[in-house]
Design a protein that fits this description.
Elements lengths: L1 H20 L18 E4 L5 E8 L7 E6 L14 H7 L1 E6 L18
Parallel strand pairs: 3-4
Antiparallel strand pairs: 1-2, 2-4
């Protein structure tokens, strides 16, 4: 009896540990029961949405246009290490976007971590 209880407890512990290693299901912005869309997004040719953010001076009045691609631990809302005065003086326009599966951009279901 004691052996069966230990085996059941051990199996339960292993199942729980396995479940903790699995990522939670993705929540796509703008779908029912998903987070709300708060950023501007464009629709790509394959039907997914890409969220982006524009900063700096107006695109039409800018001297420099810079596209920022974030790393694995960031999003389009990352902090820029430049003052608004400097950005305005130099006439810089920044465009940053959320990579597929990050922030408010839809994941690319045709790709996986193995690729």
């Amino acid at each position: 009896m004691f052996t069966k209880a230990v085996i059941v407890l051990l199996m339960s512990l292993l199942i729980w540990a396995y479940q903790m290693t699995q990522p939670p299901p993705t929540k796509i912005c703008g779908v029912p029961n998903g987070p709300p869309v708060t950023s501007r997004r464009i629709r790509l040719s394959d039907g997914r949405y890409l969220a982006y953010r524009e900063r700096g001076v107006a695109k039409e009045n800018s001297n420099y246009k810079i596209i920022i691609v974030h790393g694995f631990d960031n999003s389009k809302d990352m902090v820029l290490a430049a003052s608004q005065e400097l950005i305005g003086e130099l006439g810089i326009y920044f465009l940053s976007f959320d990579r597929a599966g990050y922030g408010e951009s839809d994941p690319n279901t045709k790709r996986s971590c193995e690729e």
